[in-house]
Design a protein that fits this description.
Layout (H helix, E strand, L loop, with lengths): L4 H25 L6 E9 L10 E5 L10 H14 L3 E4 L12 H8 L8 E3 L9 H8 L3 E2 L3 E7 L2 E8 L6 H8 L6 E5 L5 H7 L3 E4 L25 E5 L2 E5 L17 E9 L2
Parallel strand pairs: 1-12, 2-3, 3-4, 4-5, 7-8, 8-9, 9-11
Antiparallel strand pairs: 2-12, 6-7, 10-11
Amino acid sequence: MAVTRRAVLKTVVAAAVGAAAGAGTYGFVYGRRALELTRATVPVEGLPPSLGGLRLGFLSDIHRSMFVSQDDVATAVSMVMKERPDLIVLGGDYVTWGDRNYVGPSAEALAPLSAPLGVFGILGNHDDDHAMPAALGKNGAQMLKDARTRITVRGETVDLIGIRFWTRRAGDIASLVRGAAPMSILLAHDPRRLTEAAGLGVPLVLSGHTHGGQVVLPVVGAVAAQKFPVVAGLARRDRTTIFVSRGVGTVYVPVRINCPPEVAILTLTRSA
């Protein structure tokens, strides 16, 4: 019996639809909860020798919602605390679309976080400017809303510079960086701020926002995140290093494919 071209095409389309459906089911049931611990060594230009080996815990894009449970966030918190980092950074988007029903629960789930040098956070595009930072601050996190704070680490001065998602103008960022210590870390939810950081000579940037693409397709890659200079992990521009977290939660669709959620432990080292 002859096989027609139309029959072959129908078979191919059916297989593709079936594969997509299967991947979507896996991404919903398993992929979005397959939390990974990422340990990365981060080269930093001009890092003082005494700061070599400093360990930062980094969580971003929690997105506490009906699809990201209290247990999901608690697992991420526990994973970080077991590593005993020197300092913890929260990268924004603690809820989705500013949903006030989850502001309190998100802050409560993150409350056990503590570190010798403190817990510091910034706001993402899904966070409101008042309730969310107030809830996190009540539980001990120091929220940096277009602000700079100075800490002393092993006898060295380190400045943490935190900007809102909507702070984009180079001049506004420059005003926060001006006068900062040579060892500064820019906490910017959006990795597109790498451009400004590199122009200002900031040695290290920590970002989230991309979710690593959340759905990463073979060959095509992370379609939803192609507009970003860095989708996930480590990269470098000029003398500036950036680490972009894949995040803990999901947004738009509660699915992750080829892009597991993560919490990160970043160990600083002097750039060669």
